[in-house]
């Protein structure tokens, strides 16, 4: 599967001296979601064709993939049924109340009573990192808040990220994230879920802190 724009498209744009154009997030989400569905379809087919063993591991992996595939398909269906008629600037203005810490009132602008309540949430924590729209930095912030564990189950990380304000990668509000969306946002950074065994014997798909930290050098600071 190829991505768009590809190096050939960048070359064509340079030859024609076309000015760079801002993508509309909703439009970009459509091919990304379709690519995710295709990727999971290929993984499902490959997993289904593998020889069976008696330990039940392949079946568990197949079920996990099937759940991810169904979630990705539902997300693609939702995007296809959603009307998008806004220019990117209009979308940014509409999302302004949830955009970033840069647009949020400073702690000095809140009264003492409100401040005490807000300190308990991610959205007003004074240690929140700048550039909250970066999903990797947001995930690392969550890891720090919960005690810097080596890994977090995908659904646990999603539940924590939902408490954050703003838009993740300028695509989805953190409050609207699910496991499939988070996987799509993490993939460009080379961060993927892994099967991690916890003390209680569970082996959920999880995000590892070291993978998130490894992605930081690739993020423009």
From TrEMBL:
Basic and acidic residues biased stretches: 18-27
Region (Disordered): 1-27, 97-128
Domain of life: Bacteria
Protein name: DUF3631 domain-containing protein
């Amino acid at each position: 599967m190829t991505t768009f724009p590809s190096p050939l498209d960048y070359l064509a744009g340079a030859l024609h001296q076309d000015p760079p154009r801002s993508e509309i997030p909703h439009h970009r989400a459509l091919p990304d979601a379709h690519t995710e569905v295709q990727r999971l379809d290929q993984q499902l087919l490959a997993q289904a064709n593998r020889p069976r063993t008696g330990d039940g591991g392949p079946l568990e992996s197949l079920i996990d993939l099937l759940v991810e595939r169904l979630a990705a398909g539902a997300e693609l269906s939702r995007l296809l049924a959603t009307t998008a008629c806004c220019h990117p600037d209009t979308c940014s203005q509409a999302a302004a109340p949830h955009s970033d810490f840069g647009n949020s009132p400073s702690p000095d602008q809140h009264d003492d009573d409100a401040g005490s309540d807000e300190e308990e949430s991610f959205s007003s924590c004074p240690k929140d990192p700048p550039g909250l729209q970066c999903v990797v930095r947001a995930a690392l912030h969550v890891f720090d808040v919960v005690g810097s564990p080596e890994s977090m189950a995908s659904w646990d990380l999603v539940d924590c990220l939902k408490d954050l304000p703003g838009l993740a990668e300028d695509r989805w509000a953190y409050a609207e994230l699910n496991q499939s969306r988070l996987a799509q946002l993490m993939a460009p950074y080379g961060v993927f879920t892994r099967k991690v065994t916890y003390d209680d014997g569970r082996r959920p798909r999880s995000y590892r802190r070291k993978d998130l930290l490894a992605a930081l050098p690739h993020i423009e600071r």
